[in-house]
């Protein structure tokens, strides 16, 4: 193991590719393909400038490329290699109520409290089983094909280990397949917090009157962000109207990113699969990522070429953490 | 008008009493009663040491007192004097769920999110009409007597003005009597906020995993704090158990204060009423305070004497605010 900050995310994987090219050259072997490298040092800070660069260089530096390979992200297991073929998008929402702080002694019991309205709105979003309650939200989710379902069966994923690593006592689902399906290819809704309410330790008997609830819905094919936005707005307005509250409701989607999905039968996935089989003696897991990887979608959209995510680090590499290794 | 920081809260009222005694002396009039003054300069900082002082001096300085008059608090109207005969207590609650932050991309969709549990718990507390949903919470609330109801009829209170002053567009009730009853002599529940969730501007797609909801229930006679606590705990545990969540629930009541209520037919209220009628030519409003006034309850409990709150400032004096006046 090599230890160090960024060993697996992402200095190691960058060097792996450069070393591969160096090795071919040192051994005087013919390179089976040509390479162009894009080394991005700003990924953790939002890849500022990358999109602009891609647009500008599309007709020059990138004019003759056929495929794009990105080595970010990790395998799902500690030992079995994986190829990543999709990531969820995200739609972030703000729900705002009211406008002026009041004292709970002086107004408690006689007004429609904005935070009570907001709590009810947030409570209408998802049921205790994790099912999103917004009408229509699942309508555009791609149906699970038999071929896709089979991919999940062979994936190496230790549920108990994942539970222990995360400190989660019980998942919403009992089988590996259900867990991965709900993490990768179904939408999920998480509530992140409330701005404007009392958030410090201790107690303050305030009636917060301008509160903003924040939640996000992870997006999967073939959900459309504009449709999700409309469904959320309509749902919240409907719940709110039933409360007969004089408070003002404002719903917005300040940030969003589309999901990314590649074809596992694209030529570059076939080539990578063969290469992994040759080196590791087994087929890779075909995995997705529950998080959003904007860069994959960005390359795909701008270059209009097939993109493959080719992770080189293992699940236990501890990226962003103490004792990061590869 | 006299303007200045503390003009009405509370230098003016203190000086009013001292000036009254001075006037009797200057005019060489016989004092109808004897006075002992307690001038408290720490009220805004929690009256540190006052309770200890009262206990210590009960048998000496306070040994010969018959009645206690406190001039804090304000009239309900700008021109009509008032006597205050009660204040609500308060029971503050913490509801805690979970223990470790997780990323919504990596876990969104497969776990019971603690904040979702907490939102559901908070949403179970009060309905859109302001009615508290905790079983039994209204059981011990004193029944409204005919005599008490009549007190409310004659109170001078301009609903529209109160609405404008507070920036509230619509109250939960339409009449003066209902508003005051729900502000003074019925319990109310306010949610103050959540500790541990994302509370900053912008968005962070975190799944907060140790979150503490904070709310309080204003207490009125004859609610008992220990009973309120038990009802809240049982209600929240019942709602939580129906969610089948593996998260941990912890409910506590870190802070509480009992309500205070005086008898409006006590001799000192009768005397004050007569004095006000003599000076102002009209009977005072008999009012209560929706907030908690710990000092009134403290004097009553320790001295076991009748306490009267005798406000001297008017509703528009602007205590704690710009251009405070009396």
From TrEMBL, chains A, B:
GO terms for molecular function: dipeptidase activity; metal ion binding. Keywords: Hydrolase, Metal-binding, Protease. Residues 85-241 form the Peptidase M20 dimerisation domain. InterPro entries: Cyt/Met_Dipeptidase (IPR051458), Peptidase_M20 (IPR002933), Peptidase_M20_dimer (IPR011650). SUPFAM superfamilies: Zn-dependent exopeptidases. GO terms for cellular component: cytosol. Pfam families: M20_dimer, Peptidase_M20. One of its GO terms (biological process) is proteolysis. This is CNDP1 dipeptidase. The gene is Cndp1.
